[in-house]
């Protein structure tokens, strides 16, 4: 009984979770909007069917109560004339209902496929335990942009995303924009996105992929084409040189110690490729694939002891002197 009360009390809280930036009923992308319409159609048809069944059952019970006849009597006399129309009516209803839902599903599928026929943008997203490597592909590699754990997308522009994985199966899911797609090691899959509304959304890995599966999020920004162009050209630039002695000490530490073996910072000797590219790290909304918001305090915490904040993550805890930590944070904060 107590459990039932708790579930009822928690229901509004659970519903409150289904809003805003991570909402499969958001309909902010072409595919998601199609799914929402299809879902509503299924709801209406199934609700109507449900009430017809309940009404038929209520009538049957009411008639049975009213009559003094036994079940056998009724079968042979009173109800025999109803059997054929009920049978035909009911079968007809099922056939019409199921056919309508099948046709609607087919049309939705076709519409989704057609909406992204001519992509204007090609991305490759590679899943890693537990972060996303994002690459904006261009015929001219000098204009390719690499970032991590974030997507910037121009509104009303069809985007083709090639999906890969370096380790285990993950799943790419931005509920507001489109359905899920698995990322499978050794295989390429893909997904089409056509965002219809500007805004900030959240993507989430939707396939259990290890201890930090829940902290494998993706910050998605859908913006006007002008804002997207501005963002894109800012990402093409290499990192600004340090402006203060403290920042310079941070850069020195980064490029001569452990950090540069894994991370890349464009325009510096740090060229590691197995961890998130940090060239424009400080311009992102979050740290460690959505594990915490981007701010000075979290940056200190994350660099000082990543294993306490995201246990199992491949970012090791390096014993840093306080002066080294200050310098690193000061330098990383310049990477806008
Ligand atoms: Cu990656 Cu779950």
Structural description of this entry:
There is one protein chain. The chain has helices spanning 2-16, 30-66, 71-76, 80-115, 225-236, 245-256, 259-262, 296-304, 306-309, 322-332; strands spanning 121-128, 131-137, 145-148, 150-154, 159-165, 170-172, 181-183, 189-193, 199-204, 217-223, 286-287, 292-293. The chain is an alpha+beta fold and 336 residues long. It folds into 3 domains: 24-114; 121-232, Cupredoxins -  blue copper proteins (Immunoglobulin-like), CATH 2.60.40; 245-332, Cupredoxins -  blue copper proteins (Immunoglobulin-like, Sandwich), CATH 2.60.40. The strands form 4 sheets. It has a 5-stranded mixed beta sheet. It is elongated, with a radius of gyration of 28 Å. The relative contact order is 0.11. The mean pLDDT is 88. Bound molecules: dinuclear copper ion.
